[in-house]
Design goal:
Strand order of the largest sheet: 2-3-4-1-5
CATH architecture of one domain: 3-Layer(aba) Sandwich
Largest sheet: 5 strands, parallel
Structural class: mainly alpha
Strand content: under 5%
CATH superfamily of one domain: P-loop containing nucleotide triphosphate hydrolases
Oligomer: single chain
Shape: elongated
Distance between the termini: 110 Å
Helix content: 55-70%
């Protein structure tokens, strides 16, 4: 059936619904005729203009136009206070049009429940988690402390980590989050629930966009409208940009059109890269023709009346519309054109009670029923419904507010007509907001009010009305409160609202001092600006020691961020003269001492800060770092653990703890912490590079390579070394050589890269080239331990043990805690028969890295040779527990268990070994597997099985060494309690003959004969 076309009458009615702005309407309407794939299509419109030019009215018409093109629509204004509220409002409006976002709504309901639980948690003190003392840790070495120190200095490479990011920002931003997260973690059901409450955008937005995409696929268009965007842009800019263009959470569907309406231009810092995608619709006051059209449409046609309205309104659409609504028929009905538009409008409110209520209700910045009653008094409280019906009052979400043009005029009128009434009314409102704060405080403890959203809102409005009543006196009180409390407790988003409130109060009262302070604080864009503001604040707050101390402490933190250490220390000392218990001043002093390398004094300052504020998460993290730099790693871990319990989003504390784990040889712990740091800051090149190192030390070379490559992609040239190491450890020697040569081409004297190339040459049997690189490195730095150790391995492989021992010894002298040189020298001593020297080196190596199977195994051999079988068994048992799938280790361990406990007790061990041999036998050649089976069958007393395996061994034509080892293994078995000597003799004689046949020389025959004699 053909779609019905509208009649002429219907079209005319539609046109007369809205007068003016036809060009803007046409641009918006024509966009629906351009498919999204066409470069001419616009995804984002921006309606802008001064207050009163008709942005809201135009937005309504644009929404009607979108609906005419069968678009699903949704609109929001400044009544929303958070991004989740924006998504909720859009979802509700889409549901009203028959397209609910079901999955998102379920998650939103969960969020609201968890948020309710969070509010409950905020009203009760958080339980203190117990701290477990670390025990049994190996004593850290000075070189390990140095490594941590170097790593902590490297934190400067992490974007956003610095003295102010670690101190001033947690002071302002994370303090409430610290406390809230600790409480939530104790009360909510899971870590996911905590994240949902603390970071709702990361959880809600992807679900929202997924549902929106599914709905958009079923309709031609989707159109969203954001009114009064000049107020909501700080809240919404980044989120809207991310969902529209940058894909952080997903993306809006292509058939979505977004329209913003606000007074100014869009913020360049957010939208500059997408300016070409924005359709700009600037609005100016009505032309005379447009104003006449509107008046005609409203029935105002008398020329004298029209001329009066035009002179009175200046073409502002909101005022033209207001006066047109009254439909005046004579110039006298409009009134004296020298009067204000508001007076003319209120002229038609004949009842004096109604008129007074309308004027009084303009004083609050936002209205609800309670605020209205406080503004107008009990005698007019029932007029709230009438007020909401007025044409200049916008209503939504249970609150309402005057159009800004009207409210500004009403405020000016009241302030000028009766300054005393103005003051009295504002003080009455301030007292009402103060009373509502007290009601909330009755349910809270301590400083929890600074975490309570509704209390903060009431505090803001009380401050506004006191500033309006007595601007000069209240300003000093507010600046003192800012110094004492806001800098310490309030969320940064609320602090910005407080600064904007100063600007509004200054504008509404005509107080330049109040307005300038607000604008000055809002305009802070650099450390220098912050320092200047604190200097002015110190002078302004007057004789209030606590407020001045906080301002001095804050300026000290800022100066520390600017590396003005002497000035920072002076500020901290001045703050402490004013207030000896100023925790932030003690913290600043600790920062300065850390910079000076006076870590003991830094710890003392942090101790003082924590005595005042035991849950100061940032100071706990900083004291943990100072402990680490002193080598007091257990205390460092305790502080860092507690700090992260209070604020697990502190990337600096996480990375510091990772470096402490490094120093203690806990690479798993370091890996976990660097992974957490990357969850907080995914684009941190430094953290990717450090995690690459952790993966490498854990033998997870593919993951190490991936992180090193990601660090390089993010611009970390210093990750090239880790990249080369990962390639080498993966056996990708050709790629590693190409990468290292590329680095050496630009930095030919890079010792690390030269040593790495030498190691690559050594591992590919290019010995002379390896020696050339190692010698060059050692000419530049004779104590470079990696080059010494690797050159020692070359000497050992070339059977030059004295030169090898000399290189290992020099490496150990240069760094007594270099594990690999101790390991290599110990095993060389063992091979040379220097068992006591070997034992000394291996003991030292195991102090550094206690869980190294190869070193435990070598030390077990030292003990075994000395007849200390119990000690040998203990070492092999630890090694086997760490690497139980190693066939050779499992065999040696089982033989030793048999010698100590007897074959009967070891029977289960031999059975387990045979299972492992069946599973992993492909790691050995066939003849070795068969020879081991001969021994295991003999140990289990299976004569027939042992003889079959012996016959199979002969058939494999084994090498002499394999048979000789089997003979030695039978000799070891002969020392086990419960052995059957006859069975061993039956097996040994043919084994000895086979060995002699494979090595017919006199020495081989002598060894065979001696072995046979020993068995007998």
């Amino acid at each position: 059936m053909a779609e019905r076309r509208p009649t002429i009458r219907e079209l005319i009615r539609q046109r007369r619904r809205f007068v003016g702005r036809r060009q803007e309407l046409a641009a918006f309407r024509e966009n629906f005729a351009v498919p999204p794939e066409d470069a001419a299509h616009h995804f984002l419109f921006h309606v802008r203009g001064d207050a009163g030019v008709g942005k809201t009215t135009l937005l309504r018409q644009l929404e009607n136009t979108a609906r005419e093109h069968r678009a699903l629509t949704a609109s929001v204004d400044e009544s929303v206070n958070s991004v989740p509220e924006v998504m909720a409002a859009i979802s509700a409006q889409l549901a009203e049009q028959g397209h609910p976002l079901k999955s998102f709504d379920r998650l939103l309901a969960t969020y609201r429940r968890r948020r309710h639980e969070a509010d409950a948690a905020a009203q009760q003190p958080a339980p203190r988690p117990s701290e477990e003392a670390a025990a049994g840790e190996p004593r850290p070495s000075p070189s390990s402390a140095f490594a941590v120190r170097a790593g902590l200095v490297g934190l400067g490479m992490v974007p956003g980590v610095g003295a102010l990011a670690g101190a001033a920002e947690p002071d302002r931003v994370a303090q409430a989050a610290d406390r809230a997260r600790a409480k939530l973690s104790a009360r909510l059901r899971s870590h996911d629930d905590v994240d949902l409450v603390m970071s709702p955008l990361d959880a809600l937005t992807p679900a929202f966009l997924k549902d929106v995409g599914e709905v958009a696929a079923s309709v031609p268009w989707m159109a969203w409208f954001f009114d009064t965007y000049e107020r909501t842009s700080p809240l919404l800019d980044l989120w809207l940009r991310d969902v529209m263009f940058e894909g952080r959470y997903g993306s809006l569907p292509a058939n979505a059109v977004v329209t913003l309406a606000g007074q100014g231009t869009l913020a360049p810092r957010c939208w500059a890269d997408y300016a070409d995608l924005v359709a700009d619709l600037p609005l100016v006051p009505f032309t005379e023709t447009e104003a006449r059209q509107l008046l005609t449409a409203k029935g105002v046609v008398d020329e004298q009346v029209v001329e009066v309205v035009l002179r009175l309104t200046g073409g502002l659409p909101v005022l033209v519309s207001m006066l047109a609504e009254t439909r005046p028929t004579t110039p006298e009905a409009v009134g004296d054109p020298s009067g204000t538009a508001v007076e003319r409008f209120l002229k038609w409110v004949s009842d004096e009670t109604h008129r007074s209520a309308a004027l009084a209700a303009a004083l609050p910045r936002r209205l609800d029923e309670d605020v209205f009653a406080a503004a107008v008094g009990e005698e007019a409280a029932e007029l709230y419904g009438w007020l909401r019906s007025l044409p200049f009052v916008a209503d939504g979400s249970g609150r309402c507010g005057y159009h800004q043009v009207v409210r500004t005029a009403m405020l000016r009128l009241q302030r000028n007509q009766s300054p005393q009434a103005w003051r009295t009314r504002h003080l009455r409102l301030a007292d009402a907001f103060a009373g509502w704060q007290r009601q909330i405080e009755e349910t809270l403890e301590g400083d929890q009010k600074w975490e309570h959203e509704r209390w903060l809102d009431y505090r803001l409005e009380e401050a506004y009305h006191r500033l309006c009543a007595t601007p000069e006196g209240a300003l000093r009180d507010e600046l003192r409160a800012y110094a004492r409390a806001y800098l310490s407790w309030s969320p940064v988003s609320w602090e910005r609202r407080w600064k904007r409130m100063l600007v509004e109060a200054g504008q509404d009262t005509g107080s330049e001092a109040v307005r300038i302070w607000g604008e000055r604080l809002l305009a802070q864009s650099s450390m220098r600006d912050l320092a200047r503001s604190m200097t002015l604040l110190i002078d302004e707050v007057g004789p209030d020691d606590q407020a001045r101390a906080m301002a001095f402490a804050r300026r000290g933190l800022i100066r520390a961020e600017m590396n003005e250490w002497e000035e920072a220390l002076a500020d901290a000392e001045r703050a402490l003269e004013l207030d000896a218990d100023c925790a932030r001043a003690h913290a600043v002093r600790g920062e300065v001492y850390c910079h000076m390398g006076s870590y003991d004094r830094a710890v003392e300052s942090y101790d003082r800060a924590l005595r005042v504020d035991p849950e100061y998460a940032w100071v706990l993290a900083r004291r943990g770092e100072a402990y680490a730099l002193l080598g007091r790693f257990e205390e460092a871990l305790a502080d860092l653990r507690r700090s992260l319990e209070l604020n697990d989003g502190n990337a600096q504390a996480v990375t510091t703890r990772a470096l402490v784990h490094y120093a203690l040889g806990d690479f798993e712990g370091a890996l976990a912490d660097f992974t957490r740091a990357l969850e907080i800051r995914p684009e941190s090149a430094w953290a990717h590079q450090e995690r690459a190192k952790a993966y490498r030390l854990l033998g997870r070379h593919e993951e190490s390579l991936a992180d090193a490559e990601r660090a390089i992609e993010l611009g970390a040239d210093y990750a090239a070394f880790d990249h080369v190491q990962a390639l080498r450890l993966l056996g990708r020697f050709d790629e590693a050589l190409i990468a290292v040569d590329r680095c050496l081409a630009s930095a030919p004297d890079d010792k690390r890269m030269l040593a790495e190339r030498g190691e690559l040459y050594r591992m590919t049997d290019r010995v002379e080239e390896a020696l050339t690189d190692f010698n060059r490195v050692l000419d530049m730095d004779p104590s470079y331990v990696f080059a010494l150790d690797s050159r020692g391995l070359i000497h050992e492989d070339a059977d030059r043990p004295d030169e090898a021992l000399a290189d290992f010894g020099t490496a150990i002298a240069s760094d007594p805690h270099f594990f690999y040189a101790l390991d290599h020298r110990g095993t060389l001593h063992l091979r040379l028969g220097n068992d006591e020297a070997a034992l000394a080196d291996l003991d030292r190596a195991l102090v550094l890295l206690p869980d190294q199977p190869s070193v435990l195994w070598a030390r077990a051999e030292c003990h075994r040779r000395a007849g200390r079988r119990a000690e040998a068994l203990a070492d092999l048992e630890r090694a086997w527990a760490l690497e139980g799938d190693d066939l050779e280790l499992a065999f040696e361990y089982t033989v030793l268990v048999s010698q100590v406990a007897g074959l009967t007790e070891a029977r289960e061990r031999w059975t387990a070994f045979e299972r492992l041999l069946a599973e992993n036998g492909d790691e050995w050649d066939t003849e070795t597997v068969v020879a081991a089976t001969v021994i295991s069958r003999a140990a289990l007393g299976d004569r027939a099985g042992a003889e079959r395996s012996l016959a199979e061994l002969s058939a494999t034509q084994p090498c002499w060494e394999t048979v000789d080892e089997a003979v030695g293994d039978l000799d070891d078995l002969a020392q086990c309690p419960g052995v059957d000597p006859a069975l061993l003799a039956t097996l040994r004689a043919p084994l000895a003959e086979l060995r002699a046949a494979l090595d017919p020389g006199p020495e081989g025959a002598r060894i065979s004969a001696q072995g046979a004699h020993d068995i007998r």
